[in-house]
Design goal:
mainly alpha, 18 helices, 77% helix, 0% strand
C-alpha cells in the first residue's frame, strides 16, 4: 500500500473491452483514474488513496445507513411486541423468512449493479455506468411487480408452509400481504442504493434513509395504534411504515440520480441486463435457499410453541444491530474491490478485503460481550412476555460467539460480490445452510431449542470460515465483467 503522500497515478488510455481488467499486465501505478464522488462534491479516490481512510470514508456512512434501518426495525418490533402482543411479534418474525426470500431477489439487483457499475467507474466510464443504472432500475421495477402479484396470489400457501398457530397465521397474512404491495418500490430502492455506492458515494444513501426513517418512526405507532385521528391498522400499519421507508427513499433517490447525471434513460440492452443478473443471481439463489431453509427450521421450532418462534425472530432482530455493521463495510468493500479491479489493481483489491474485515473486529467483540452479559435486558426491551424473554436470552447466549464469524461472512461476501465472483460463495453458503435442516431435526428431540440454537450458531461460524477461504484463494481476481 502506498503512503498517503505518494503522487496520484498517471491516467492512461483505457484497455479494450475484450481484455479482463483484473488480468491486465499493468504496472500497479498505471491506468488509474481518480473517482469523483457525487455526494457533497467531495473527491474520494477509491483506487488511489490509502486504504484505511478510503474504507472508513466509504464504510462509515454505509454502516450508519444500515443502523438507521435497524433503529426503525427495532422500534417496529417494540411497538408490535409491547402493544400488539406475542402473537403479533411471532407473526412478524415468521413473515420475515418469506420477506428475506423476496429481498434476496432485490439483492440480486443491488449486488449485480454494484459490481458492474463500479467496474465501469474504475475504467473511467461514468456514462456507461449511468446507462447500466437506468437499465437495472427498469428491471427492478418489473421484477418487484412480478413479486407483488405472485406473492399476493400465493399468500395462503406461503403462510401454511410455516405451520404456525392459527392466531399467528392470521396476523401474518395481514402483515405479509400489506408488505407485498410495496415490492416494486422496495426493489427499485436496492438499485438506487447500489447506483450511489458503486460510485463510492455512501453519504447520499445515508441522508435519504435518515430522512425517511425519521418520518416513519413517527408514522409507525400512529398507523398501528390509530393515534391522532388515523385509522387503527394494527400489524398492517407496521408493514405500511416499512414500505414508506424504502419507497420514499427510492423516489427521492431517483430524482437525485437524474440531477447528477448518474442515470441515463435509453433502450434496455440485453447484454447489460445479463451482466447484472449473471453477477447477482448466485447471491439471490443463496438468499432464496437461506429463506426456504429457515422456513423448514421454523417448522421444527414451531413444535416448541409461540415463545420459541418469537424468540428466534427477536434474537435475529437483536443480532442484526451488529450484523449490519459488517453488511455496511461489506458494501464498502464491494465498491472498493470493484473499482480497483476495473483499474487493474487486484492486489490492492485483495488488501482491501482483509483490511475491511479488520474494521469489523472490534464491533464483533462488543456484540459477543453484550449478548453474553445482558441478554435478558436486551429481550426485555421488546416484549413483557416472560417466556419469550427467557427463550430469547437463551438463544443469544448460545449464538454470541458466532458473531465473530458472521462478520467474516458478510464483509467478504460483499467483497466477492464487488469482484463479480458470486457462484463459489453461493455454493459454499447454501450447502452449509442446508445442513441446518437435518441437523436441527436431529438435535430438537434430543436437546430441544438448545440443540436448534447450537446448530444455527455452528453453521453461521462455518459460513464465515468458508468465506475467508474463498477470499484467500484469490480466484475472484480473474473474474471479467
Amino acid at each position: 500500500m502506498r503512503a498517503g503522500g505518494d503522487p496520484p497515478p498517471a491516467i492512461t488510455a483505457r484497455p479494450p473491452d475484450s481484455v479482463p481488467a483484473a488480468a491486465l499486465p499493468l504496472d500497479p501505478f498505471d491506468g488509474i483514474a481518480a473517482i469523483a464522488v457525487t455526494g457533497e462534491h467531495a473527491t474520494l479516490a477509491l483506487v488511489r488513496d490509502p486504504l484505511p481512510g478510503v474504507i472508513w470514508r466509504v464504510g462509515a456512512p454505509a454502516v450508519a445507513s444500515n443502523l438507521l434501518m435497524i433503529v426503525f426495525a427495532s422500534a417496529d418490533a417494540f411497538w408490535v411486541g409491547t402493544r400488539l402482543g406475542s402473537d403479533a411479534l411471532a407473526a412478524v418474525a415468521t413473515s420475515l423468512f418469506w420477506i428475506w426470500l423476496f429481498v434476496s431477489l432485490a439483492e440480486m439487483i443491488g449486488v449485480g449493479l454494484t459490481a458492474v457499475a463500479a467496474r465501469r467507474h474504475g475504467e473511467g466510464r461514468p456514462e456507461a455506468a449511468a446507462q447500466v443504472v437506468w437499465e437495472t432500475l427498469v428491471v427492478a421495477v418489473l421484477l418487484g411487480t412480478a413479486v407483488a402479484v405472485g406473492g399476493s396470489l400465493a399468500l395462503p400457501s406461503l403462510l401454511a408452509a410455516l405451520h404456525t398457530p392459527a392466531p399467528v397465521a392470521v396476523l401474518g397474512a395481514r402483515y405479509l400481504g400489506t408488505y407485498l404491495l410495496g415490492a416494486p418500490l422496495i426493489f427499485a430502492y436496492f438499485a438506487v442504493d447500489a447506483a450511489f455506492r458503486a460510485s463510492g458515494d455512501t453519504r447520499t444513501p445515508l441522508l435519504l434513509l435518515a430522512t425517511s426513517v425519521a418520518i416513519t418512526l413517527i408514522l409507525d405507532p400512529i398507523l398501528m395504534l390509530g393515534l391522532m385521528g388515523a385509522p387503527r391498522l394494527g400489524i398492517a400499519g407496521a408493514a405500511v411504515a416499512t414500505i414508506a421507508t424504502r419507497g420514499g427513499g427510492c423516489l427521492l433517490g431517483v430524482a437525485l440520480l437524474a440531477r447528477r447525471a448518474m442515470v441515463r434513460a435509453g433502450p434496455v440492452r440485453t447484454a447489460s441486463v445479463r451482466a447484472v443478473l449473471r453477477v447477482g443471481l448466485p447471491t439471490a439463489v443463496t438468499g432464496v435457499l437461506f429463506s426456504l431453509i429457515f422456513v423448514a427450521v421454523t417448522h421444527i421450532v414451531a413444535r416448541f410453541g409461540t415463545p420459541a418462534l418469537a424468540a428466534m425472530g427477536l434474537g435475529f432482530r437483536i443480532e442484526s444491530w451488529f450484523y449490519v455493521i459488517g453488511v455496511g463495510f461489506g458494501a464498502a468493500a464491494a465498491a472498493i474491490v470493484g473499482q480497483n479491479l476495473g483499474a487493474g489493481r487486484p492486489d490492492r483489491a485483495a488488501r482491501a478485503g482483509w483490511l475491511t474485515l479488520a474494521f469489523t473486529t472490534a464491533p464483533a467483540l462488543v456484540a459477543v460481550a453484550i449478548e453474553l452479559l445482558i441478554p435478558v435486558h436486551l429481550a426485555g426491551v421488546f416484549t413483557p412476555d416472560g417466556a419469550v424473554i427467557t427463550e430469547t436470552a437463551h438463544y443469544l447466549r448460545i449464538a454470541a460467539v458466532s458473531q465473530l464469524f458472521t462478520a467474516s461472512e458478510v464483509v467478504l461476501e460483499g467483497a466477492l460480490g464487488g469482484a463479480g465472483d458470486t457462484i463459489p460463495p453461493m455454493i459454499m453458503s447454501s450447502s452449509v445452510s442446508a445442513s441446518r435442516i437435518p441437523l436441527a431435526a436431529w438435535a430438537a428431540p434430543r436437546w430441544g431449542t438448545t440443540g436448534i440454537w447450537i446448530i444455527i450458531a455452528a453453521t453461521a461460524a462455518a459460513r464465515g470460515l468458508g468465506m475467508m477461504a474463498l477470499w484467500r484463494a484469490g480466484w475472484w481476481k480473474r473474474r471479467a465483467l
